[in-house]
Amino acid sequence: MTEYETILVDRKGRVGIITLNRPKALNALNTQLMTEVVAAAKDFDRDPEIGCLVITGSEKAFAAGADIKEMQDNRFPDVYLDDWLGPWDELGRLRKPVVAAVAGYALGGGCELAMLCDILLAADTAKFGQPEIKLGVIPGIGGSQRLTRAVGKAKAMELCLTGRMMDAEEAERAGLVSRIVPADQLLAEAMATAETVAAMSAPAAVMMKESVNRAFETTLAEGVRFERRLFHAAFATADQKEGMTAFAEKRPANFSNK
Ligand code: CAA
Protein backbone atom coordinates (compact mmCIF):
# COMPACT_ATOMS: atom_id res chain seq x y z
CA MET A 1 0.00 0.00 0.00
CA THR A 2 1.26 3.55 -0.78
CA GLU A 3 2.90 5.43 2.12
CA TYR A 4 1.19 8.68 3.15
CA GLU A 5 2.22 11.30 5.69
CA THR A 6 -0.97 13.24 6.42
CA ILE A 7 -3.53 10.44 6.28
CA LEU A 8 -3.83 6.86 7.50
CA VAL A 9 -5.18 4.37 5.02
CA ASP A 10 -6.63 1.01 5.95
CA ARG A 11 -9.01 -1.56 4.60
CA LYS A 12 -11.37 -3.91 6.40
CA GLY A 13 -13.09 -6.40 4.12
CA ARG A 14 -14.68 -4.42 1.29
CA VAL A 15 -14.40 -1.06 3.08
CA GLY A 16 -11.55 1.39 2.44
CA ILE A 17 -10.84 3.77 5.34
CA ILE A 18 -9.08 7.14 5.09
CA THR A 19 -8.28 8.88 8.39
CA LEU A 20 -7.13 12.50 8.24
CA ASN A 21 -4.02 12.71 10.40
CA ARG A 22 -2.60 16.16 11.04
CA PRO A 23 -3.51 16.27 14.76
CA LYS A 24 -1.40 19.33 15.58
CA ALA A 25 -3.30 21.41 13.01
CA LEU A 26 -6.75 19.92 13.74
CA ASN A 27 -6.53 18.16 10.35
CA ALA A 28 -6.35 21.44 8.44
CA LEU A 29 -6.49 20.60 4.77
CA ASN A 30 -3.14 21.56 3.25
CA THR A 31 -2.06 20.72 -0.29
CA GLN A 32 -0.28 17.54 0.74
CA LEU A 33 -3.32 16.24 2.62
CA MET A 34 -5.61 17.10 -0.29
CA THR A 35 -3.32 15.31 -2.75
CA GLU A 36 -3.08 12.27 -0.49
CA VAL A 37 -6.82 12.02 0.23
CA VAL A 38 -7.67 12.30 -3.45
CA ALA A 39 -5.02 9.74 -4.46
CA ALA A 40 -6.04 7.23 -1.78
CA ALA A 41 -9.74 7.67 -2.53
CA LYS A 42 -9.19 7.18 -6.26
CA ASP A 43 -7.15 4.03 -5.58
CA PHE A 44 -10.01 2.60 -3.52
CA ASP A 45 -12.51 3.70 -6.16
CA ARG A 46 -10.64 1.70 -8.84
CA ASP A 47 -10.19 -1.36 -6.59
CA PRO A 48 -12.79 -4.08 -7.35
CA GLU A 49 -12.29 -5.51 -3.84
CA ILE A 50 -13.61 -2.26 -2.30
CA GLY A 51 -17.33 -1.47 -2.25
CA CYS A 52 -17.53 1.59 -0.01
CA LEU A 53 -15.20 4.19 1.56
CA VAL A 54 -15.13 5.82 4.98
CA ILE A 55 -13.47 9.20 5.54
CA THR A 56 -12.94 10.26 9.14
CA GLY A 57 -10.79 12.51 11.32
CA SER A 58 -9.99 12.60 15.02
CA GLU A 59 -12.12 12.92 18.15
CA LYS A 60 -11.44 16.66 18.29
CA ALA A 61 -11.65 17.51 14.60
CA PHE A 62 -12.87 15.98 11.40
CA ALA A 63 -11.07 18.95 9.81
CA ALA A 64 -10.86 22.60 10.89
CA GLY A 65 -10.83 23.82 7.29
CA ALA A 66 -8.36 24.61 4.56
CA ASP A 67 -4.90 25.37 5.94
CA ILE A 68 -5.03 29.09 6.66
CA LYS A 69 -1.29 29.39 7.27
CA GLU A 70 -0.53 27.75 3.93
CA MET A 71 -2.76 30.06 1.93
CA GLN A 72 -2.50 33.38 3.80
CA ASP A 73 0.17 34.89 1.53
CA ASN A 74 -1.33 33.75 -1.76
CA ARG A 75 -2.55 36.31 -4.28
CA PHE A 76 -5.20 36.03 -6.96
CA PRO A 77 -2.93 34.94 -9.85
CA ASP A 78 -1.36 32.25 -7.65
CA VAL A 79 -4.63 30.66 -6.63
CA TYR A 80 -6.39 31.24 -9.95
CA LEU A 81 -3.69 29.80 -12.21
CA ASP A 82 -3.06 26.96 -9.78
CA ASP A 83 -6.82 26.23 -9.53
CA TRP A 84 -6.34 26.24 -5.75
CA LEU A 85 -8.56 23.60 -4.09
CA GLY A 86 -9.77 22.41 -7.52
CA PRO A 87 -8.48 18.84 -6.99
CA TRP A 88 -11.09 18.34 -4.24
CA ASP A 89 -13.69 18.16 -7.03
CA GLU A 90 -12.25 14.77 -7.92
CA LEU A 91 -13.63 13.45 -4.65
CA GLY A 92 -17.12 14.38 -5.81
CA ARG A 93 -16.53 12.33 -8.95
CA LEU A 94 -15.83 9.04 -7.11
CA ARG A 95 -18.22 6.36 -8.29
CA LYS A 96 -18.36 4.30 -5.09
CA PRO A 97 -20.31 5.52 -2.06
CA VAL A 98 -18.38 7.37 0.64
CA VAL A 99 -19.38 7.63 4.31
CA ALA A 100 -18.15 10.67 6.25
CA ALA A 101 -17.73 9.97 9.98
CA VAL A 102 -17.55 13.39 11.62
CA ALA A 103 -16.56 14.09 15.23
CA GLY A 104 -15.56 17.50 16.57
CA TYR A 105 -14.93 20.41 14.23
CA ALA A 106 -16.00 20.22 10.58
CA LEU A 107 -15.39 23.82 9.60
CA GLY A 108 -14.87 25.51 6.26
CA GLY A 109 -13.16 23.01 3.99
CA GLY A 110 -13.82 20.36 6.66
CA CYS A 111 -17.56 20.86 6.38
CA GLU A 112 -17.20 20.94 2.61
CA LEU A 113 -15.24 17.68 2.63
CA ALA A 114 -17.98 16.05 4.72
CA MET A 115 -20.58 17.33 2.26
CA LEU A 116 -18.60 15.87 -0.67
CA CYS A 117 -19.30 12.46 0.88
CA ASP A 118 -22.55 10.56 0.32
CA ILE A 119 -23.66 9.53 3.81
CA LEU A 120 -22.79 11.91 6.63
CA LEU A 121 -22.74 10.38 10.13
CA ALA A 122 -22.15 12.84 12.98
CA ALA A 123 -20.88 12.14 16.48
CA ASP A 124 -22.80 14.02 19.17
CA THR A 125 -19.67 16.18 19.48
CA ALA A 126 -19.72 17.33 15.83
CA LYS A 127 -19.76 21.04 15.01
CA PHE A 128 -20.36 22.27 11.49
CA GLY A 129 -19.79 25.70 10.02
CA GLN A 130 -18.52 27.82 7.15
CA PRO A 131 -16.49 30.48 9.01
CA GLU A 132 -14.60 31.73 5.90
CA ILE A 133 -16.32 35.11 6.17
CA LYS A 134 -14.35 35.76 9.37
CA LEU A 135 -11.16 35.39 7.32
CA GLY A 136 -12.33 37.81 4.66
CA VAL A 137 -13.10 35.13 2.08
CA ILE A 138 -15.91 32.76 1.14
CA PRO A 139 -16.02 28.95 0.88
CA GLY A 140 -14.01 27.43 -1.97
CA ILE A 141 -14.85 23.71 -2.08
CA GLY A 142 -18.58 24.06 -2.72
CA GLY A 143 -19.76 25.10 0.75
CA SER A 144 -22.06 27.88 -0.40
CA GLN A 145 -23.65 25.48 -2.89
CA ARG A 146 -23.85 22.15 -1.06
CA LEU A 147 -24.79 23.63 2.32
CA THR A 148 -27.57 25.63 0.68
CA ARG A 149 -28.91 22.53 -1.08
CA ALA A 150 -28.69 20.56 2.18
CA VAL A 151 -30.21 22.98 4.68
CA GLY A 152 -32.00 25.59 2.57
CA LYS A 153 -31.28 29.25 1.90
CA ALA A 154 -32.17 30.84 5.25
CA LYS A 155 -29.93 28.65 7.41
CA ALA A 156 -27.13 28.52 4.84
CA MET A 157 -27.13 32.30 4.55
CA GLU A 158 -27.06 32.75 8.29
CA LEU A 159 -24.25 30.23 8.83
CA CYS A 160 -22.16 31.54 5.91
CA LEU A 161 -22.70 35.24 6.65
CA THR A 162 -22.11 35.05 10.40
CA GLY A 163 -19.66 32.11 10.57
CA ARG A 164 -21.75 30.59 13.37
CA MET A 165 -21.20 26.89 14.09
CA MET A 166 -24.09 24.47 14.45
CA ASP A 167 -24.00 21.42 16.65
CA ALA A 168 -24.92 17.89 15.61
CA GLU A 169 -28.56 18.20 16.75
CA GLU A 170 -29.13 21.31 14.68
CA ALA A 171 -27.31 19.77 11.71
CA GLU A 172 -29.51 16.70 11.86
CA ARG A 173 -32.71 18.76 12.18
CA ALA A 174 -31.61 20.81 9.19
CA GLY A 175 -30.99 17.72 7.05
CA LEU A 176 -27.21 18.06 6.78
CA VAL A 177 -26.42 14.77 8.49
CA SER A 178 -28.09 11.42 8.13
CA ARG A 179 -27.71 10.33 11.75
CA ILE A 180 -26.16 11.31 15.11
CA VAL A 181 -24.35 8.63 17.09
CA PRO A 182 -22.53 8.71 20.44
CA ALA A 183 -18.93 9.80 19.83
CA ASP A 184 -17.43 6.54 21.11
CA GLN A 185 -19.50 4.58 18.61
CA LEU A 186 -18.92 6.78 15.58
CA LEU A 187 -16.36 4.66 13.80
CA ALA A 188 -18.16 1.39 14.54
CA GLU A 189 -21.42 2.84 13.18
CA ALA A 190 -19.65 4.24 10.11
CA MET A 191 -18.02 0.87 9.47
CA ALA A 192 -21.31 -0.98 9.92
CA THR A 193 -22.99 1.39 7.46
CA ALA A 194 -20.13 1.09 4.96
CA GLU A 195 -20.07 -2.71 5.30
CA THR A 196 -23.81 -2.82 4.63
CA VAL A 197 -23.37 -0.74 1.47
CA ALA A 198 -20.29 -2.70 0.39
CA ALA A 199 -22.24 -5.97 0.62
CA MET A 200 -24.81 -4.76 -1.90
CA SER A 201 -24.44 -5.35 -5.64
CA ALA A 202 -21.60 -3.00 -6.67
CA PRO A 203 -23.23 -2.05 -10.00
CA ALA A 204 -26.50 -1.29 -8.16
CA ALA A 205 -24.69 0.83 -5.55
CA VAL A 206 -22.88 2.85 -8.23
CA MET A 207 -26.14 3.30 -10.16
CA MET A 208 -27.88 4.38 -6.95
CA LYS A 209 -25.25 6.98 -6.12
CA GLU A 210 -25.30 8.31 -9.68
CA SER A 211 -29.07 8.49 -9.65
CA VAL A 212 -29.41 10.27 -6.28
CA ASN A 213 -26.73 12.76 -7.31
CA ARG A 214 -28.66 13.50 -10.50
CA ALA A 215 -31.37 15.01 -8.30
CA PHE A 216 -28.96 17.88 -7.61
CA GLU A 217 -27.98 18.44 -11.20
CA THR A 218 -31.07 18.27 -13.34
CA THR A 219 -34.83 18.78 -13.60
CA LEU A 220 -37.25 16.33 -12.00
CA ALA A 221 -38.41 14.97 -15.37
CA GLU A 222 -34.84 14.42 -16.59
CA GLY A 223 -33.87 12.90 -13.27
CA VAL A 224 -36.76 10.43 -13.36
CA ARG A 225 -35.87 9.51 -16.97
CA PHE A 226 -32.22 8.99 -15.92
CA GLU A 227 -33.30 6.80 -13.00
CA ARG A 228 -35.63 4.76 -15.24
CA ARG A 229 -32.82 4.04 -17.76
CA LEU A 230 -30.50 2.87 -14.98
CA PHE A 231 -33.32 0.81 -13.45
CA HIS A 232 -33.80 -0.90 -16.83
CA ALA A 233 -30.02 -1.35 -17.18
CA ALA A 234 -29.92 -3.15 -13.82
CA PHE A 235 -31.82 -6.01 -15.49
CA ALA A 236 -28.66 -6.69 -17.52
CA THR A 237 -26.79 -7.69 -14.35
CA ALA A 238 -26.44 -11.12 -12.77
CA ASP A 239 -27.02 -9.40 -9.42
CA GLN A 240 -30.59 -8.47 -10.39
CA LYS A 241 -31.29 -12.18 -11.05
CA GLU A 242 -29.56 -13.16 -7.80
CA GLY A 243 -31.27 -10.48 -5.71
CA MET A 244 -34.76 -11.32 -6.92
CA THR A 245 -34.20 -15.11 -6.90
CA ALA A 246 -32.87 -14.90 -3.33
CA PHE A 247 -35.98 -13.00 -2.28
CA ALA A 248 -38.27 -15.59 -3.90
CA GLU A 249 -36.27 -18.44 -2.28
CA LYS A 250 -36.32 -16.68 1.12
CA ARG A 251 -32.50 -16.63 1.47
CA PRO A 252 -29.93 -13.83 1.67
CA ALA A 253 -28.62 -12.63 -1.69
CA ASN A 254 -25.04 -13.43 -2.60
CA PHE A 255 -24.02 -10.77 -5.08
CA SER A 256 -21.19 -11.33 -7.57
CA ASN A 257 -20.92 -7.66 -8.57
CA LYS A 258 -21.54 -8.72 -12.16
N1 CAA B 1 -5.55 26.17 9.23
C1 CAA B 1 -4.32 26.10 9.78
N2 CAA B 1 -4.12 25.80 11.08
C2 CAA B 1 -5.20 25.56 11.85
C3 CAA B 1 -6.50 25.63 11.33
C4 CAA B 1 -6.65 25.93 9.94
N3 CAA B 1 -7.85 25.97 9.36
N4 CAA B 1 -7.38 25.36 12.32
C5 CAA B 1 -6.65 25.13 13.43
N5 CAA B 1 -5.32 25.25 13.15
C6 CAA B 1 -4.19 25.09 14.06
C7 CAA B 1 -4.07 26.29 14.99
O1 CAA B 1 -3.38 27.35 14.35
C8 CAA B 1 -3.28 25.67 16.12
O2 CAA B 1 -1.92 25.58 15.74
P1 CAA B 1 -0.75 26.06 16.77
O3 CAA B 1 -0.88 25.10 17.94
O4 CAA B 1 0.50 25.87 15.99
O5 CAA B 1 -1.06 27.47 17.16
C9 CAA B 1 -3.82 24.25 16.20
O6 CAA B 1 -4.41 23.99 14.93
C10 CAA B 1 -4.90 24.07 17.26
O7 CAA B 1 -5.89 25.06 17.03
P2 CAA B 1 -6.44 26.05 18.18
O8 CAA B 1 -5.37 26.30 19.17
O9 CAA B 1 -7.03 27.23 17.49
O10 CAA B 1 -7.54 25.12 18.83
P3 CAA B 1 -8.86 25.59 19.60
O11 CAA B 1 -9.42 24.35 20.21
O12 CAA B 1 -8.57 26.74 20.49
O13 CAA B 1 -9.87 26.14 18.46
C11 CAA B 1 -11.00 26.05 16.31
C12 CAA B 1 -10.38 25.25 17.49
C13 CAA B 1 -12.24 26.81 16.79
C14 CAA B 1 -11.40 25.02 15.26
C15 CAA B 1 -9.94 27.04 15.78
O14 CAA B 1 -8.73 26.33 15.54
C16 CAA B 1 -10.33 27.69 14.48
O15 CAA B 1 -11.13 28.60 14.47
N6 CAA B 1 -9.76 27.23 13.33
C17 CAA B 1 -9.98 27.84 12.04
C18 CAA B 1 -11.34 27.47 11.49
C19 CAA B 1 -11.55 28.14 10.15
O16 CAA B 1 -11.58 29.35 10.02
N7 CAA B 1 -11.73 27.30 9.08
C20 CAA B 1 -11.94 27.79 7.76
C21 CAA B 1 -10.64 27.83 6.99
S1 CAA B 1 -10.79 28.60 5.41
C22 CAA B 1 -11.44 27.43 4.41
O17 CAA B 1 -11.69 26.32 4.81
C23 CAA B 1 -11.71 27.88 3.00
C24 CAA B 1 -12.46 26.88 2.19
O18 CAA B 1 -13.64 27.00 1.92
C25 CAA B 1 -11.76 25.75 1.64
In brief, what are we looking at here?
The protein is of the alpha/beta class and 258 residues long. The chain has twelve helices and ten strands. The model has no long low-confidence stretch (mean pLDDT 97).
Q: What would you note in describing this structure?
A:
By secondary structure, the protein is of the alpha/beta class. 45% of the residues lie in helices and 16% in strands. It has twelve helices and ten strands. The protein has helices spanning 31-46, 68-71, 76-81, 89-92, 109-116, 143-151, 153-162, 168-173, 186-198, 202-214, 220-234, 238-248, and strands at residues 7-12, 15-20, 52-56, 61-63, 98-102, 105-107, 119-123, 127-129, 166-167, 179-181. The chain has a six-stranded mixed β-sheet, sandwiched between helices. Helix 1 links the parallel strand 2 (15-20) and strand 3. The longest helix has 16 residues, at 31-46. The model has no long low-confidence stretch (mean pLDDT 97). Acetoacetyl-coenzyme A (CAA) binds at residues 25-26, 28, 64-69, 85, 105, 107-109, 112, 131-132, 135, 139-141, 143.
Spell out which ligands are present.
acetoacetyl-coenzyme A
- Report helical residue fraction: 40-55%
Q: Please, what is the average pLDDT?
A: 97
- H-E string: EEHEEHHHEEHEEHHEHEHHHH
Give the neighbour order of strands across the main sheet. Answer: 1-2-3-5-7-10
- Radius of gyration from CA coordinates: 19 Å
Strand content: 15-25%
